[in-house]
Amino acid sequence: MVFGKRHILSMRDFSREEIDLILDRALELEPYAKGKRSDRLKGKILANLFFEPSTRTRISFETAMKRLGGEVLNLDSTESSSIAKGETLADTIRVISAYADIIVLRHPKEGSARLASEFSSVPLINGGDGAGHHPTQTLLDLYTIKRESRLDGISIALVGDLKYGRTVHSLSIALSFYGASIKLVSPPGLGMSETMKSDLMDLGAEISEHDSIQDVIGDIDVLYVTRIQKERFPTLSEYNKVAGSYRIDKKLLESAKDDLIIMHPLPRVGEIDPEVDGTKHACYFKQAFYGVPVRMALLTLLLEGDGDE
Ligand code: NCD
């Protein structure tokens, strides 16, 4: 299969076969994520363009690139760049794509990655576009599910802000390729959009909506918890109406399956009680680590092809 040089904008751009290829390669690269030496991407440059806060996505791309011998440029929208002078995204991308071999873009506007890709002469990876999509988070989420549970035919609850949360938008699309039963649990007003739900049904996903985590906790293999996306709310008072409306604690887990795994893209801001961290169910810190081998896999496929052309 030819993976090829291309932009990574949404999970809709992948076939199941391609996702499996990335996950298999991530497994091969795990030793390098843990520190084994490699110069596989020597001479290649990644540009991290982050116009919204990020810890894991930016740093794990940087770690993945550097542990494979590549180099990283970092740009943000603060005083030090021309973005502060009013340069358009299109011009920034045109210029940076002449300096770097690959670009990771995070931007507050939905659709910005697709727009930017039209001006990029090198592969552009969407590192999160507003409330839109976050495909590389999904690849590492799938890898975590594969490593810590199993991918086919799982029952998963997506909990929290399903309206503004980009990670759950991307993840639910990908899960539909693996025959998952997807249970949507959100506070009032933060449910998944009708468009998104009908897209998922068109993809053959089995989805159902529930009012509380208690209703589903005994039936699921994966509990995927998300943060309420405070920064996307029109007003602070709208946010305050739903803030703190759910919290995973040990009591809730008493009715969980023995092998339930709990995931969270992080950062968490109170959705998971720290007392859960020490339980066998907690997977979220491992999940954050898995971002490194998965991003290594993607970078090698985009920068050097899959060697099977
Ligand atoms: C997520 C994001 O930025 O969408 N974080 C991440 O990339 N790990 C989730 C969030 O911010 O809530």
From TrEMBL:
Domain Aspartate/ornithine carbamoyltransferase Asp/Orn-binding: 152-301
PANTHER family per UniProt: ASPARTATE CARBAMOYLTRANSFERASE, ORNITHINE CARBAMOYLTRANSFERASE, MITOCHONDRIAL
Keyword field contains Transferase: yes
A cellular component term, taken from the record's GO annotations: cytosol
Coiled coil (residue ranges): none
Gene Ontology BP annotations: 'de novo' pyrimidine nucleobase biosynthetic process; 'de novo' UMP biosynthetic process; amino acid metabolic process
Physiological role: Catalyzes the condensation of carbamoyl phosphate and aspartate to form carbamoyl aspartate and inorganic phosphate, the committed step in the de novo pyrimidine nucleotide biosynthesis pathway.
Keywords tagged on the record: Pyrimidine biosynthesis, Transferase
Entries under InterPro entries matching the protein: Asp/Orn_carbamoyltranf_P-bd (IPR006132), Asp/Orn_carbamoylTrfase (IPR006130), Asp/Orn_carbamoylTrfase_sf (IPR036901), Asp_carbamoyltransf (IPR002082), Asp_carbamoyltransf_Asp/Orn-bd (IPR006131)
Residues given in the record as carbamoyl phosphate binding sites: R56, T57, R106, H134, Q137, L266, P267
Pathway given in the UniProt record: Pyrimidine metabolism; UMP biosynthesis via de novo pathway; (S)-dihydroorotate from bicarbonate: step 2/3
Homology family: Belongs to the aspartate/ornithine carbamoyltransferase superfamily. ATCase family.
UniProt EC number: 2.1.3.2
Residue ranges annotated for the Aspartate/ornithine carbamoyltransferase carbamoyl-P binding domain, each copy included: 6-146
Listed HAMAP family: Asp_carb_tr
A GO term for molecular function: aspartate carbamoyltransferase activity
UniProt subunit comment: Heterooligomer of catalytic and regulatory chains.
The name this protein goes by in its record: Aspartate carbamoyltransferase
Pfam short name (any one): OTCace
Catalysed reaction, written as an equation: carbamoyl phosphate + L-aspartate = N-carbamoyl-L-aspartate + phosphate + H(+)
Protein species of origin: Candidatus Syntropharchaeum butanivorans
Annotated L-aspartate binding sites: K85, R166, R227
